[in-house]
């Protein structure tokens, strides 16, 4: 989290080239995937067949990168990223309560409180702005919270589908933006004014 926050601050101050941002975000995503799988196997929360370790590792890393990037891209209007973050955090708190995961509930409620407090000053017309440091950090947190929801391994399909549904707006915006740029043969990380907002 600190590395992503630091990356965001540097990008806010210096406007990093997208390739450097992507490499650092990918490195953090790979770190989360490696450490997460190691902890899951060490504490034997999930029994993994050896053949599943590599695909699961890449799936987690890609998921973390996708969620982190999507919250960074959706931060285009006053109150949008923080409002979506509050809704997602409240939804994850309910999901954590329903699935009996107190850690998910606790982390989600902390994010709810932080984003609601921030939203008071970020609501249009905003007096403070989230910037890349805030949006990247929130994206990373939501990636981690969703992994915590799925980690027990029970009803995995429904848990994954629920996480995708909760994060659907930023994920859809990112998917549409990248698809649009690929179709028009523009660089996928080049900014445009055709996001959902």
Descriptive account of the structure:
By secondary structure, the protein is mainly alpha-helical. 76% of the residues lie in helices and 0% in strands. The chain contains eight helices and no strands. The radius of gyration is 17 Å and the shape is globular. It starts with a helix and ends in a 14-residue tail after the last helix. The model has no long low-confidence stretch (mean pLDDT 86).
The helix/strand series, from N terminus to C terminus, equals HHHHHHHH
How many β-strands, per DSSP? 0
Distance between the termini: 27 Å
Mean pLDDT: 86
- What amount of the residues lies in strands? under 5%
Report helical residue fraction.
over 70%
Number of helices: 8
Structural class: mainly alpha
User: What is the overall shape?
Assistant: globular
Largest sheet: none
Radius of gyration, CA atoms, in whole angstroms: 17 Å
Poorly predicted regions:
none
Please give a handful of descriptors for the protein shown.
197 residues; globular; 8 helices; 0% strand; mainly alpha
Summarize this entry quickly.
Helices cover 76% and strands 0% of the residues. The protein has helices at residues 2-14, 18-42, 50-74, 80-98, 102-122, 131-150, 156-166, 168-183. The radius of gyration is 17 Å and the shape is globular.
């Amino acid at each position: 989290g600190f590395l992503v926050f630091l990356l965001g601050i540097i990008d806010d101050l210096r406007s990093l080239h997208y390739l450097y941002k992507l490499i650092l975000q990918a490195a953090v995503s790979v770190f989360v995937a490696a450490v997460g799988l190691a902890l899951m196997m060490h504490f034997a929360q999930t029994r993994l067949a050896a053949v599943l370790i590599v695909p699961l590792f890449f799936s987690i890393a890609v998921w973390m990168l996708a969620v982190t990037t999507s919250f960074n891209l959706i931060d285009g209007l006053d109150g949008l990223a923080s409002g979506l973050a509050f809704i997602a955090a409240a939804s994850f708190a309910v999901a954590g309560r329903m699935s009996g995961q107190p850690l998910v509930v606790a982390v989600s409620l902390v994010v709810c409180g932080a984003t609601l407090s921030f939203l008071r000053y970020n609501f249009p017309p905003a007096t403070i702005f989230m910037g890349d440091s805030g949006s990247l950090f929130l994206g990373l947190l939501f990636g981690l919270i969703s992994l915590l929801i799925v980690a027990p391994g029970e009803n995995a399909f429904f848990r994954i589908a629920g996480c995708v549904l909760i994060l659907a707006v930023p994920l859809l915006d990112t998917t549409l933006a990248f698809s649009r740029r690929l179709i028009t043969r523009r660089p996928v990380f080049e900014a445009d004014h055709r996001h959902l907002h």
